[in-house]
Amino acid sequence: MNAPAVELTEQTHRRGGGRLGRKALRSAPIASFPTLVRKIPAYEIVPDEAVELIHEESLKILEEVGCEFRDDGAIELWKAAGADVRQTRVHIDRALLMELVSKVPPEFTLHARNPERTVRVGGKNS
After folding, report:
1. pTM, to two decimals
2. If DSSP codes are grouped into helix, strand and coil, which group holds residue 125?
3. Which of 26, 76, 88, 124 is the most exposed place for a label (fewest CB within 10 A)?
């Protein structure tokens, strides 16, 4: 009985992995997308009373349960701001939080290392 003939084909392409493949990926052009700008009005998905209830409950959680921070710099910033810091858990008083939130500008620019990727946040920018 004869063994079936096995045809070997020559590989016509090279693998793209390894150092050269990673280098090619890093140097490939990256598509940039424009910042999204809302052109439709905001919709009220839940009634104002529900938004107020969610807000009150979130403040209650931040005051009573607190929030875990594992970055020493962030913990120091909260201490300096007047929050109750217990090791890595930060309890934030509602008056302090509302004071800090009131200082946030309605719009700001988030600067990227690559200026082409800098985006505007807030206002009609999403």
Report:
1. 0.60
2. strand
3. 26
Nearby residues of 48 by Cβ (< 8 Å), 6 or more positions away: none
What residues contact residue 120 under an 8 Å CB cut-off, 6+ apart? 35, 107, 108, 109, 110
Residue 6 exposed, middle or buried by CB count within 10 Å (0-12, 13-18, 19+): exposed
pLDDT tens, position by position, 14-52: 665 678 777 777 776 666 666 777 788 777 889 999 999
Q: Cα 74 to the chain's mean position, in Å?
A: 17
Residue 104 has what DSSP assignment?
A: S
Provide the H-helix boundaries in the chain: 18-27, 48-64, 72-81, 94-102
